[in-house]
Amino acid sequence: MTVEEGKSLAESEGLFFIETSALDSTNVKTAFEIVIKEIYANVSRKVLNSDISKPEVSLNRVSLTSNGTDDQKKATSKFSCC
Questions:
Q1: Would you tell me how many other CB atoms lie within 10 Å of the CB of residue 25?
Q2: 16 contacts 38 by C-beta, under 8 angstroms
């Protein structure tokens, strides 16, 4: 499948598309970050649309943080959850 075919299929299905390469790590980190942010946004919307008076809903929160120096962030980015 060509890149254009992939983009077209993703667009027609309402899906996310990004070209990546595991061989040279092109866009791999970016793809994971975008997917995690989309999952976070979807979960956040569901929590906001739910009955907030439920204690278990209001206590379960997810946050993404990046740790390390600027040099470390360039080499590898560490994210933590919960």
A1: 9
A2: yes
d(CA 58, CA 43): 12
Per-residue pLDDT reduced to its tens digit, 63-78 = 555 655 554 444 444 5
pLDDT per position as a tens digit, 19-43: 999 899 999 999 999 999 999 998 8
The label of the residue with tokens 């907030």 reads: 52
Rounded Cα distance between 32 and 49, Å, is 26
Rg (CA), the chain: 17
Looking from the CA of 31 toward its CB, the CA atoms found within 13 Å total 12
